[in-house]
User: Fold this.
Amino acid sequence: MHNLDTSIKECINMVKKISSIDIAKLNRNMIYKNIYFSSENITVNKLVKRLKLSRPTVENNIKALIEDGLIENGKHIESTGGRKPKTLEIVANHKYAMACLISYKYISVGIVNLAGELIDELDIDWIFKNSKEYFDDINATIKKMIKKWNIKRENLLGISIVIPGPIDSSLDEVIYSPPLANEYIDIKYLKSVIDLPVSVINDVNAIGIGKHFFDEDDDYNAVYLNLARGIGGFIWSGGHKYIGDNGIAGEFGHMKIVPKGKKCHCSRHGCLEAYISTSCISDELNMTLEEFFEKLDKNSKKITEKWFEYLDYLAIGITNIYCVFNCKVLIGGEITAHLQEYKKVLDDKVRSYLSFDKDKTIYEISNYDKKDIIFGSCVYYINKYIDTI
Assistant:
């Protein structure tokens, strides 16, 4: 009986010990995340009030985080009395993540630090080839950038390969990307030659995640429609992205809008992508986007007719998406700067297709920034690392 009592006491003490360790780790992580995500100057006093922890607990954790090189003292700010308090900031260049955006005509490789700042970016004009040699060139480019910045292997969290097109989460080693190649892309080799953890993400999901990662006001709904060589979407609802059963929700480009219509990159006919992808106003006319808009500025009749036809189909896409989701549609992509000038025309077209909410602003034109894609694709590794602190 005595031995049984002793065992029970030992178990109780073990549980208490484990619980105290867990609580200590939780407090440390909460303090770091509050410093990381704070949109205002954060101090010890604010952390004590916000987290309802004792001052010694906060101060001891701050001391440990500083000693571990994870946070540092920032600037002095005005005091309501007594000494001016110092702000607390994360050490941004403590860890890094990388991204490689693969497009049909170029690749873009970027390095991002923990604060989401783009340290370096390299764009190279390469036509996509589904080949070992192409992936070898990507790996060599990644290694050169790491060497250029003298980043140690242990300080690199991983690299995200960003690909346009649906990424089925049930497929691990192959990706189907119509905008790149009308076939499955075997990324197993690329993963094997890169000496880093590798993940694959859809380009539009990367944009959406990049825009929302630091967003405190996440209790709203929005749908992104990205205009590029491939048409994709991102669905944000109540603080979370909606990905569907296999991770491919938001593939608005493959909604059928014209029965037996134009051939799409996916080899089927009548998809929205066949009418509003950037290739409709560049590749199909055997010109670059820059040349198209130069001719549009010069009032070329043929180009103007093509552009107004494009806006008509874009309006159909916007109203269809709004009818399904009943929330604001945010338009992004390479041509958004040119859309602003024709917003009144697009407004009229959208209004003509709407059956309800005709007086409501149902869409916005967002600023396109490739940095959102690069940062958003790195968030997976950054977030994963932050959870371990």
Notes: The chain is about 40% helix and 20% strand. The two ends are 43 Å apart (CA to CA).
